[in-house]
Amino acid sequence: MFSITIGMMKRGAKMLVPAGIAIIIGTAFIAATLLFGNAMNDTLKRMTTAQYGDANYSIGFDTSIADADDADMDYLYSRTISDFHPERLRAVEGVKGLRFEARAEAVAANGDRHANMFAVTTSAERGLLPVTVTQGIQPAAGGQVALQESTAKQLGVGIGDAITLASKGASSDIQARVVGLTRDDAGAYPYYGGASLLSDDLMAAISGVADFGRVNATTAYLDIDGEPAAMKTTIDTINRILPKRFAVQSRDKAAEDAVKSLSGGDTDIVTTFLLGFGALAMLVAALVIANTFQVLVAQRRRTLALLRTIGAGKGQLYASVLFEAGLLGLVASALGVGLGLALMGAVTASGLTSSIGMPMRLVPDWRVFVVPIAFGVVMTVIASLSSARTATSVTPLEALRPIELSETRRTGVMRGVLSALMLAAGLAMCAYAAWQMHWYGMGRDSMIADHYSTVLVVAIGGCALVFLGLIISAVYWLPRALYGAGALVSLAGPSAKVAHANIQKNPRRVAATGAALLIGVTLVSTIATGAASGKATMSEALTTRYSVDMIASGDDMTDAQAARAAKVKGVASSIYAPITTVNAKDAHGANITTLVVGVDGSNDLRKVMHADLGGTTIGEGTILMPERSAFDGKDFAFTNGRVELTAAGATGGGKDALTLDVRQADYRRVSADYAAVAFVNVRHFTDGDLKTDGHMLLMRIDADGAGTTLNDVFTGVQSAFTDSAGVTVIGPIAERAQWETMINAMMALLVGLIAVAVLIALVGVANTLSLSVIERTRESATLRAIGMTQGQLRRSLAIEALLLALVSGLAGVVLGAGFGWLGSYMVFSLYGTVVFPFDWTVNGATLGIAAIAALLASVAPARRAVKTPPVEALAEA
Questions:
Q1: Would you say residue 749 has pLDDT above 60?
Q2: Backbone torsions φ then ψ of 346, nearest 5 degrees
Q3: So where are the chain's domains?
Q4: Sorted alphabetically, which InterPro entries does this protein's record hold (predicted)?
Q5: Are 103 and 244 in contact (CB under 8 A)?
């Protein structure tokens, strides 16, 4: 029997192609999603452990400690390198390399040229370096430094040149010799644009201590070699040497912890999220497969009748259909996995992800092969069960009769009851999850973090129940919706009237096809709405967390230097302002160390600040303060809405105190060195109310618009201040750009999802119309015989396809928007106020593409319908 089945598959290969395409699309999507998740986790792990170099272990705080108090924290952060006994660590068997992570900031000078320098410790083993030495060697001893390439360019020095270093920790200038150049290829220090390397003696001198052993350090990186058992012995030995509350941790464990912290406690949250849509794509494919096998059974009814006549049993026919489905699922799923691997391989090899700041690698594992194939085979077999029952439930005599044109079975009451219960339960679960997040947003349930995963599962389960309830009840509401739309369309002429009548003939099949389209469009609309909401929400949160793109400040900054920096390519706008440090007290009497900046007004400030300042004005009697502390994130409150400013170090209340009315806005990260950065009218500086301690240049950066890179902008701004040793340039935009890169990467997935939905919609509509043409062979022949032209018959099928696509598509857009908004609220309300946009562009494009796909899907069935002569069609029917 199986050989007969394979023979029938060969004869009906063309009919199996649509189902095979649906399976390939679904399994390719799942395989690509798993590969994307692997690549993203791999990238995040490499980014978060870039400072390791090639080290496979690190020394740091024991992360299992949960009872550390202030005294413990003081102890942890006051450890020096000698406390770790470095010589004993290097002597442990299995330790091939060791590098302590100490950091320093200094001002480098070459004649009258200056540059701010961020530096870390060097290592004898080049593999342990966190940055790449592009030229020369890594520092060893004797005051050697490997300068960051941009810093060397700013100073105008090369290998072998001498430079002078000055730091807050050193009592005098320090002489150093450049022995190499570095570049931060791994992105270990994005906030500083990279790092220079210092020899041990130079790091000690800059830190203001007598020798390297007294340099403060809390982290070290180890290269440990050997078999697993030997490595465990090595780690145990190292742990006994370390100071208390310090421990060895593997690089893999550190990477997993970092990724877990970035994803809110679930390392595979992105993969899981996308796999949910992959499962929905396979559900669409299952509906398409079911329709395909209905077409096959309809076409093979006479063949099946003959097989029954010569002795084939019902069980054999049943097994034959399932075997055919399983074989189709296996072959198509394997091709789908190959397609998924090829697509992700092409994306990673093209460098596309590197261009957006997230270089990815192809990281296949067993799940990429097993999960899609198993899922594809199982879904295909399940989808064919109904057709298998149909093939065995008719007698040979019945199978030889003409096919009925209309659906005669009535929809059961249990279906309606079950779908109603699902809808009610799903809506209740969604409402409960949203209420929990709202309660958390109001600050009334600080324990939500402990059961956030549960609340998220409730929301997902609620959406799934609502969705399944609508799919199950589609046989009730979708034909009625199509009837209403068709009644209007039927006024357009004979072809439209025929289409309106035909679409009511088989409500079950119409509901199945409409459900397939509904799933596809809902998928796209959900992702589009969720991505738009997420981008808008995170953009809003980022604008408050990183309010200013780039800042330069110092006590010896000049007007000419600020003017040069403002003209650097990529600097869109800037404010040059006087600054001073003052003390302010909140409503509880706590002191707030505040940096006060003088500006012309709030309109001037809006040019450089990413924050909603609303209708805030900065007059002579007002001060603009942030809503929250930059240190601990706690809200600021002031007595009677006023604040008294006193010079740093003064006790307050004196004649020099300045009292102003407070205006507040949500902005942060203007300067990480102060609890608050406030803005006043510049007249307070010119009138002598406030003493000018220095100046600050606040800049808004638009590197893309200027056709340059962030690193070039950063280097150009630093170069503008080479004449001043006391000017510091920092670029919070680097961190902000990393977050936006991740959001943009998620948005890029829309293209693939839309392609999946369109292809599945095309296959589903084509299958339904094919089956309709087969069932209506006699009807089409009769219409042709009484004068209906080929063009009118084609138009009737096209209108039928359009009705299916647009009505189901509109329902999918509405449903997807709701799901997208709920999903965004569940995820992004943790980060800020959620924005609920409706993506008209993507949703409109989806409906347009669905309509075009429907028209294309009607071409082949229409050709079949008009190709057969009326007399021959009547004879066959």
A1: no
A2: -65, -40
A3: 1-54+268-401, 57-262, 475-546+737-877, 547-731
A4: ABC3_permease_C, MacB_PCD, Macrolide_Exporter_MacB
A5: no
For residue 47, the model assigns a pLDDT of 76
Q: Is 638 helix (H, G, I), strand (E, B) or coil?
A: coil
Q: What is the bridge-based pairing of β-strands 113-121 and 162-166?
A: unpaired
Q: Residues near 875 by Cβ (< 8 Å), separated by ≥ 6?
A: none
Confidence of residue 405 (pLDDT cuts 50, 70, 90): very low
> On the CB side of 780, how many CA atoms lie within 13 Å of its CA?
30
pLDDT above 70 for 450: no
Q: DSSP alpha helices (H): ranges in 199-351? A: 200-207, 228-241, 251-262, 269-299, 301-309, 314-350
Helices (H), 49-97: 70-77, 86-91
Q: How far apart are CA 290 and CA 296, in angstroms?
A: 10
Q: Is the pLDDT reported for residue 277 higher than 60? A: no
User: Please, what is the average pLDDT of the chain?
Assistant: 80
Residue 190: closest CA among 699, 671, 735: 735
**Which among 104, 107, 105 has a CA at the least distance from the CA of 163?**
107
DSSP string, 21-35: HHHHHHHHHHHHHHH
Sequence-distant (6+) residues with CB within 8 A of 23 are 285, 289, 328, 329, 332, 333, 336, 376, 379, 380
CA dist., res. 79 & res. 81, Å (int): 7
The structure's pTM equals 0.59
Name the packing angle between helices 790-828 and 777-785 (round to 10°): 140
Residue showing tokens 């296959």: 763
Residues 6+ apart with CB under 8 A from 42: 360, 361, 363
Helices 733-775 and 269-299 sit at what angle, rounded to 10 degrees?
Answer: 10
pLDDT above 90 (res 353)? no
| Dist CA 757 CA 746 (whole Å) | 17
Cα–Cα distance, 650 to 581 (Å, whole number) = 11
Query: Are 726 and 584 spatial neighbours (Cβ–Cβ below 8 Å)?
Result: no
Helix, strand, coil in percent for the chain, rounding step 5 = 60, 15, 25
The candidate with the shortest Cα–Cα distance to 816, out of 431, 518, 452, 491, is: 518
